[in-house]
Amino acid sequence: MQVTIGKVGSLLIAVGYAVFVIVGGGVEGLKWAAALLIPLALIWFPDEIGSATGYIAGHLRVDAETPPVLISIMGWLFLVGFPVLFYLLWR
Questions:
Q1: 39-85 confidence digits (pLDDT tens)
Q2: What phi, psi does 49 have (nearest 5°)?
Q3: What is the Cα gyration radius of the chain?
Q4: What CA–CA distances, in Å, run from 80 to 4, 23, 56, 72?
Q5: Alpha-carbon distance 21 to 41, whole Å?
Q6: Are 10 and 44 in contact (CB under 8 A)?
Q7: 3-state secondary structure of 60
Q8: pTM (2 decimals)?
């Protein structure tokens, strides 16, 4: 696995979020911190995730590979975009 600026940056952002929710929420914060693994996986492994085809969830068929850049953008949207949007809407 090649270390890139995007991977290091996403890890630093996720660690910051994790510290914030664990300090503020205790055990409940650990559940929120575990949810950060999803956007990190999308950012770190877009090639592997994008190349997944076949049956998903037993009945949903994926016929074409997804471009890795779209997978990575989705990861960044989950990691940075949604928290910023939620902050702006509910502050």
A1: 999 999 999 998 888 777 777 787 888 999 999 999 999 999 988 88
A2: -70, -40
A3: 15
A4: 18, 20, 27, 12
A5: 20
A6: yes
A7: strand
A8: 0.83
Which residue matches tokens 């492994």?
Answer: 45
Q: How far apart are CA 16 and CA 33, in angstroms?
A: 10
| Alpha helix positions (H), 26-89 | 27-34, 37-44, 46-50, 68-76, 82-89
CA distance 73 to 91: 26
Q: What is the rounded distance in angstroms from the CA atom of residue 24 to the CA atom of residue 60? A: 39
Give residue limits of the domains in the chain. 5-89
The CA distance from 72 to 46, in Å, is 6
